[in-house]
Design goal:
heterodimer; A: Rossmann fold; six-stranded mixed sheet; four-stranded antiparallel sheet; 8 helices; about 30% helix; about 25% strand; globular; B: about 270 residues; mainly alpha; MetI-like fold; 10 helices; binds adenosine-5'-triphosphate; binds magnesium ion
Amino acid sequence: MLDHPATHVTGTVTDLQATGLAKSFGKARPVFEGLEFRIQRGECVALVGANGTGKSTLLRCCLGLIAPDCGQVSLLDQDIAAIKGPARRALRARTGLVGQKHNLVPRLSVLSNVIHGLLGRHSGPRYWVQGLAPAAARTAAFAALDKVGLADLALRRADQLSGGQSQRVGIARALVGNPRFLVADEPCASLDPQAGEEVMALFMSLVKREGVTVLFTSHNVQHALSYGDRILGLQGGRIAIDARAREVSAQDMARLYV
Amino acid sequence: MSDRSLPMRFARPGAGGFLGYLAVVLIILWSLEGAGWSADRLISSPPKLADFLDRAWPPSTHNLDRLAWKMVETLQIAIAGAAIGIVLSVPVALLAARGVLVGRGVSLAVRTILGFIRAVPDLAWALVFVVAVGLGPFAGMLAIVVDTIGYCGRFFADDMETTDPGPAEALTATGARRLDIAACATIPAALPAFVSTSLFGLEKAVRSSTILGLVGAGGIGIEMKVGFDLFDYPTAMTVILMIAVVVIGVEQIGAVLRAAIMGQAR
Ligand SMILES: Nc1ncnc2c1ncn2[C@@H]1O[C@H](COP(=O)(O)OP(=O)(O)OP(=O)(O)O)[C@@H](O)[C@H]1O
Ligand SMILES: [Mg+2]
C-alpha cells in the first residue's frame, strides 16, 4: 500500500475556478446556486454529498458538457463557455472524464474503446477501431489497459465485461490521453474493495508523480477523507464544506447526509 | 388510517369526451358515404367474384418460365434499389438525426424532405423516373432507391436519436469531433436497429417492385396488368400467387434474420 497520500503539498496555480454557478432542469428548483470554489494544480479534491445533490451535474458543468444557467467556469485558464470548435476540443483533450456510468461503446472491443480516448488529439477512421489504429495509439492504449490490470481482455467485446471491468476500461480511456485534469464520477462505485483501493492508489500516483489534478466524487467517506487533499461537500444546492481533508471530521461528513 | 380510497376502474367520460366519440362515429359514416358504400353492389358481388375465380382457376402454367424470369427481374430491382437506398440512407440519416452531426434546424429541414419523399407514393416515383430515364426496370430501381431513402433515412435517424447518449458524452469529453463521435459511438450502438430497419426496407422494396410494372417500370407487375387487360385471368392468377409466395417468403426470411440479430445484441 501507498503511504498516506493527504500529506501532498498543493501548488499555487489555479486549474479550475467556478464563480456563481447555478443550474436547474426545467422549472424545478435549481439543483445548485451560487457555487464558488477553486481547485489548485496538483490537488486531489473529493466532491461529496447525498444522492441527487448535483455532484454529477456540477462535474458536467465544469467540463462544459452542459451549460450552467449562470456563472462561469475557468478550466486550465480558459473560460469554457467562451471557447468553441477546435479550441474547446483542444482543452477537452487535456482533460479526462470517468463517468458514473462507464459509458463504453458496447459493440466494440475494449482496446478500441480505450483508443477512443485519443480522439481529442487525432481524428478520422484510423482512430475508430483498433484494427486500423496506428501502432503508437495501440501501444498507448494497451499500456493504459495494463495500468488498470486489464491487458489480457484487450480484444474482449465491451458488452461482455463485468461492471467493475467496464469501469476500469472507462478509467483507461480517460488516462490514455495523459490528461492534466482528471474528473472521476464515483470511479470506485462498482469496484470490489480491493480494486477500489487500487484505483484510488493509481489516481494518487498520477497526482504525485505527474502532477495531475484530480476531482472525484465518492460515497465512500473513508476514500474521500484519506485520498482527498481537500473536501468539497454539497448540501441543499450550496457548498457546505470546503476544507482540507485533515480538518474535516467524520461528524462533519455525516451531517451532509441527514 | 388515510382517507385515500381505491380509484375507480374506468373514468366516466365527460360531456367533451362524449362529443368526441360522436364526432368519430359521424366522420366514419360520412366517409363510407363518400366511398360510394352500396349494399346492393356488395350483395351482388359474390357471384361475379365466383365467376372470376372460375375463369381464373386453374392458374395458367403456360408461360411459367417467362413469368419466373420476370419474377427474378422483380427481385433484382428490389435488391439493387434497396441496397443503394440503404447505403445512401446512412449519410442522409446522419443529417436528419438531431444532435448527432447537426442541430435542430438542419435536422428539421432534412426530415421535412424525407417526409415529402414518403408522402409521394412509390408508383408516382416510378412514373416520374419513367419520364426521366424511359420505360423499363432502371426506372423502377430508381423509384425503389428514392422510396427506400424516404423510409430508411427517417428510421435510421430515429434509431440514432434513441441510442444511449452516455458513450457519446464520454467521447465529447475527450474532445472528439462530431463525425468521430457518430462513427465510434452512435452508429455502432444503432447498428442492430439499422439491420432490422434495413430488412423492413427490403421487404417494402419487394412489395413495391411487384407492382411497378403497372406503370411500365419493370418487373412482374406488367404481366398481371396484361393478364387483366386481355381477360387472361389464369395468367393473372398465376402472377398474383407468385407475388404472394415471394412476398411472404421474404417476410419470413426477414423475421428469422431479425430474431437472430436481436438475440445477438443481448
Ligand atoms: N438531464 C436531467 N434532466 C432533469 N433532471 C436532471 C437531469 N440530470 C440530473 N437531474 C436532476 O438533478 C439532480 C442532481 O442530479 P445529479 O445526477 O447531479 O446528482 P448526484 O449528486 O450526482 O447524485 P448521485 O449521488 O445519485 O450520483 C437530481 O435531482 C436529478 O434528478
Ligand atoms: Mg452522480
